[in-house]
């Protein structure tokens, strides 16, 4: 038996998350986001935008920043220079 209130809430969340969603070809992630928003809505948070940002923030916590990539490039360049210097010195 279906609960009309729950069905309406789910439809509302699907619509709102669908409106906010900006990642094409990631319907799998959007479905996870919808579930996250629904679970947290039920827990008392009633702001879709906040919940979508919170969900995406958690997914991006380990993402690489431009500063990370720049540091990795510098480290690799320094490693290559060090390797060349060692080769030149016969080490």
Q: How many domains would you count in the coordinates? A: 2
Query: What count of helical segments does DSSP give?
Result: 4
Low-confidence stretches: none
Shape: rod-shaped
Overview features:
single chain; 91 residues; mainly alpha; 2 domains; 4 helices; rod-shaped
Structural account:
With 91 residues, the chain is an all-alpha fold. It has two domains: 60 residues, no CATH class; 29 residues. Helix content is 75%, strand content 0%. It contains four helices and no strands. The longest helix is centred in the C-terminal third of the chain and has 23 residues. The chain starts with a helix and ends with a helix.
Blueprint (SSEs and pairs):
Blueprint: H1 4-20, H2 27-42, H3 48-59, H4 66-88
Helix pairs in contact: 1-2, 2-3
Concise structural overview:
By secondary structure, the chain is mainly alpha-helical. It has helices at residues 4-20, 27-42, 48-59, 66-88.
């Amino acid at each position: 038996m279906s609960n009309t209130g729950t069905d309406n809430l789910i439809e509302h969340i699907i619509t709102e998350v669908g409106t906010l969603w900006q990642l094409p070809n990631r319907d799998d992630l959007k479905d996870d986001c919808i579930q996250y928003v629904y679970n947290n809505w039920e827990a008392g948070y009633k702001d879709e935008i906040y919940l979508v940002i919170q969900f995406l923030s958690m997914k991006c916590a380990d993402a690489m920043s431009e500063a990370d990539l720049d540091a990795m490039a510098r480290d690799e360049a320094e490693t290559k220079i060090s390797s060349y210097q060692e080769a030149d010195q016969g080490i």
